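One-letter codes give the sequence; each number marks local geometry. A record appears below:


***
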Amino acid sequence: MSADSIKPGLTRRAFTIGTGAALAAGTMNVPGALAQDFPSKPLKIIVPFKPGGRTDVVARLLSEKIQANGWLSQPMAVVNADGGAGANAVNLMQRDDPDGHTIVHWHHQMLIAIAMELGNFQLDDFKSIGYTGGGSPVWTVAADSPYQTLDDLIAYLKENPRGLVEAVGIGTIPHFVGAMLANAAGFETRYVTANSGADRLRMVLGGNADIALFAASEYLAQAEGLRPLVYFGKERLPDLPDLPTATELGYDVTWANPNWWLAPADTPDAHVEMLAAALEQAIADPEIVDYFTSNTLEAYWTPGAEAMEDARSTLEQLKGIAATIG
């Protein structure tokens, strides 16, 4: 599961099932000579996580859509390289020539790793291809919790600092999103380690933690036994129309966690443009839009340069959070 990773003014070309094909039709305006030169061999998409998670699934869906429609002339293979806070994936990327045939599909956990100095990489190691949609999480308590609203919970914590337990994995998105809200609202929790959504769920339902963050899709799949207090999207989630956003409640905290496609920094711009054009078509495809909508995700395209500018801004915010929790 990005601090306001989609900010006002950031280009988000959103797609809906009746318009995706029309929007995509004029995308591929790459000179014919470049189309013949690239790609010249199969493409490798490195995912810094184990198979089965959102990042992996989205990489496979979009690469299959691109291949099925011939939007790139070579097949695309997803390679999973988890571990090392993303360093394993970066090292694998850097073994190949920086020509666009090896790229990475990540999200803003990468920025957290940089903010916490967990990996041997920086933003300057990459050239941004673009964002293909994303999704936001919810902050929850147990269904039988005495806290009916976020204001109730914050009022208690201000009177009882560290009086509630938050289930997080240190250095993960739940850790940082909770810390961003705590800093904005002026409260403190105490942490219990929970490195996966399943761990967080087990701890809250078992009474070993009071608070946990979940992807909206995780919450909706589980809903029973949990009460959501706030949503971290820019706007309310249609599937949870009564759940307010943090912004509505007066806290400047949002997290969109976009699907981010990256190439090595020295990749030729023309090759990045071809990759971007194919991805923009893929995220506009009605079947892809339907998948995103069905999984409480937003389907949109943000061009590479704007995505990188947004990521740099987000990284500075995350560094500030890292300083307060380090």
The chain has two domains: 13-135+256-325, 137-231. The mean pLDDT is 88. The first strand starts at residue 13 and ends at 14. Residues 91 and 318 are 23 Å apart (CA to CA).
